[in-house]
Amino acid sequence: MTLLVISPDYASHLLPLATLATSWRDAGERVVVATGPATAAIVESFGYERIDLRLGRGSNPGTIKPEDQPPGEDDALRGFFDATRLGMIETLEFQARARLTDLMWQPVETARAVLAVIEAVRPTAIIVDHLAFSARLAMVAGRIAHVDVVLGHPSALPSLDEVYGFPPAWPAAFTPSAGELAELRALCDEVSANFTAEWNGALSVLAPELPASPSAFEEHGDLVLYNYPGELSPAERPLPPHVFLGSAVREEPADDEVAAWIGASGEPFVYVSFGSFLSVRGDVLGRVADALRERGLRAAIATGSSSPDVLGAVPGDWLVRGFLPQVTLLRSASAAVTHAGNNSVTEALTFGVPLVALPFSTDQFAGAAALEQNGYGVALAPNTATVAELAGALDRVLGMPRDALNALSRSLRYAPGASRAREAVTSWSIDSGLDAASR
After folding, report:
1. For the purposes of burial, counting CB atoms within 10 Å of the CB of 414, is it exposed (0-12), middle (13-18) or buried (19 or more)?
2. Single pTM value for the model
3. Is 256-414 in the same CATH topology as 2-249+416-432?
């Protein structure tokens, strides 16, 4: 069997997809990853074959910086970072306006490149990142059966009256006005209409005999895998044929310094990371550090693209590096502070770690709201949360009842996402009688 994984050239997207593919690799089957050059080292670290496929202008090997992006993408990234400093509505509006032009990069050419990769690899099964729109367009045009992996909050694939880019839920700390929400919704509706027109325009070139899509954001693969715990998804929300994977927790290479730091003390510690994008918000990292110092807590902090200087005076029992092995630290952490990115949320829940969530953008608001509603964390607005409020949130999560968290952790660890993925894809292939050569 040959599994083809199609991913944008972003570490935060490739890592969970590559982790899901380990169940095929460990069964002795061939795994080929089609992605760009920035993440080639990640593909190699998993022991997979790589075939070059460019799905967009930008890339991110682990920490993204504007100066590393091609012209145009660099300014867009700076604009996004600036918007996060203004607030939630401003950030979501900036992202929505950017989507008017950047969701499908050279869709016809890219789709043809995807079809050429599939022809060259001749896979038995294909799993593709849901946000790799041009790749999914190619498979619709080519009538190629495939499995669609939603790596973020499930609302990335809209349902009911949802629209892409408009959070279906907000944490209690966020209180946008009715007028702001109406304007954001109208903008997201405009983006959805424009994107559908762009999708259909490309589809008419690639496969003019096929009908147009009524709503391109609602298009999905033959089977949808949600990299998210089903326990956090509302039962009444209708979904396409799907499986909840829970989480895609990756194996990390041994890190002697980190292992020694964890073992040096039995005191609880807090892990802090804002991921590959939002680590640029050193001002918020600095306030989190102040709150940790105020409470006298031991901490492991990944500063990412921010200078360690933003943290102020670093206590001797803290571990501070640009990059830290997140999974390794979450296995032992007592709490975590996060931007509420899906990888961070699902990995923390796998180990029963409660979260202080500071969402900045996209589906982070819905993810933080789910944590809050289910009693797995506390959400604050990152731009306005004071040191005292952050310290209070740390107190609350460290004192949270752990029964529900521990039960969820046992469920996620008992059936890891990689094994759920392979079982789901294998069962789907058998039940449907489909393979990667036909829809």
Report:
1. exposed
2. 0.92
3. yes
